[in-house]
Design goal:
The chain is mainly α. The chain is built from 17 helices and no strands. It has one domain: Na+/H+ antiporter like fold (Up-down Bundle).
Length: 402
């Protein structure tokens, strides 16, 4: 099939399914994942894709990943962290408990023969890190719809969201650094240190020299267009620099987003224009480019493991649910909160479907996890993202609205 036709069909189907899921009060990303799962079916893919069209979809997916990580970097703002102890306890334990449970569950699955992987300890660390991540946007949207977005419950979720952004950045950074290390096992550590040193010199140059220099050319008539172009230039430049240094385009794009946010904060650009640029980046990323990444991820998911090895998928899904629920309850208990709010927060922090799939895809591409384990993570993202908002809405409606 012609490449342009494939792009059109993929984007159109992704959009229609995303609208359907949004109408069901579920994340739009599920639409792209479903399209990818369908296009990746053995009886479908050979009749639609040839080698050339697959490479085009992969190129769009790689670009989508860069834009996605750039946007994550732009969102990272430590100044927004809620200073209350309760929020901090919930944010910490809702990330820590799933990590520990995920690590232990993978070790046990490997020991009991339900999982075959070359590096069980590394796989356990990766799965633990992936399960610790969440996507709070869905829960915040629900609170907004119920007109309680200024409540203490919302503040706790926002606090967890800020910490989650930090966890996401650390997860991707550590994962890419480890991949770089295993590719150079003899001199790996020295190469990593040298490459990171060179890379952070480039980060400094970009943040303190390149971006301020480009900002001088911003037109007063069309600052939004100029800022958007500068954002694109910076994200691609840092992604390419990271790729050439062996650190990876993903980490480069992430740091580019952080640099751009720092530049905005230090510049004299109006806050309204900064918000508009962020909105444009979000629309470009999630409206056009990022869906191809999630389609690509879906194409590599294979749910046949639910027949051949159902224990693997069920355990990971159950641990994902339990980790966030227990973590939120522990955080609420230590912060001297109540059981109902802990349960509500646990469901609110249980949705997935973005950065954890980025980490899973990086691990899959570098053979750190098996295809079966990767598919289990995609399955987990589906299940938690579909079920959690229903319970969250139920608890919020019953206990927090009049």
């Amino acid at each position: 099939m012609e490449s342009l036709v494939i792009i059109l069909v993929s984007l159109t189907c992704s959009f229609l399914l995303s609208e359907l899921f949004e109408g069901l009060k579920l994340p739009r990303v599920l639409g792209a994942l479903f399209v990818g799962l369908f296009l990746g079916l053995p009886m479908v893919q050979p009749h639609i894709f040839d080698e050339n069209s697959l490479q085009i979809i992969k190129a769009f997916a790689d670009l989508g990943l860069i834009f996605l990580m750039f946007f994550v970097g732009m969102k990272l703002d430590l100044s927004e962290i809620d200073s209350s102890k309760k929020s901090k306890f919930i944010a910490i334990f809702s990330a820590l408990v799933p990590f520990i449970l995920g690590f232990i569950s993978i070790k046990l699955l490997y020991r009991w023969g339900f999982l075959k992987v070359a590096r069980p300890n590394i796989a356990a660390l990766i799965i633990g890190g992936i399960l610790s991540v969440t996507a709070e946007t869905v829960s915040l949207d629900i609170l907004g719809q119920l007109k309680i977005s200024k409540s203490s419950l919302a503040k706790k979720i926002i606090g967890a969201d800020i910490l989650d952004n930090i966890v996401e950045a650390l997860l991707i950074s550590v994962l890419i650094t480890f991949v770089h290390y295993i590719q150079n096992p003899v001199f790996g550590l020295f190469i990593i240190i040298f490459d990171l040193l060179v890379f952070f010199i480039l980060v400094y140059i970009a943040g303190y020299l390149l971006v301020p220099f480009l900002m001088k050319f911003i037109s007063r008539r069309q600052p939004k267009i100029d800022l958007f172009i500068i954002s694109l230039i910076l994200s691609l430049f840092m992604a390419i620099a990271g790729e050439y240094l062996g650190i990876g385009s993903v980490l480069g794009a992430l740091l580019a987003g952080i640099i751009m946010r720092y530049t905005f904060q230090k510049s004299k650009i109006k806050k309204s224009i900064q918000r508009e640029i962020t909105d444009v980046m979000e629309i470009t990323t999630f409206g056009f480019i990022a869906p191809f990444f999630f389609i690509w991820v879906g194409m590599h998911g294979n749910f046949s493991f639910l027949i051949t090895n159902p224990i693997l998928g069920l355990v990971i899904a159950i641990v994902a649910f339990a980790g966030k629920l227990i973590g939120a309850l522990v955080g609420e208990w230590i912060g001297k909160g109540d059981l109902i709010e802990g349960l509500t927060l646990g469901w609110g922090l249980n949705t997935r479907g973005a950065i954890e799939l980025v980490a899973a895809e990086i691990a899959r591409q570098n053979n750190l996890i098996t295809a079966e384990l990767f598919s289990s993570l995609v399955f987990m993202a589906f299940i938690t993202t579909i079920i959690s908002p229903m319970f969250f809405r139920f608890y919020v409606t019953k206990y927090y609205t009049k």
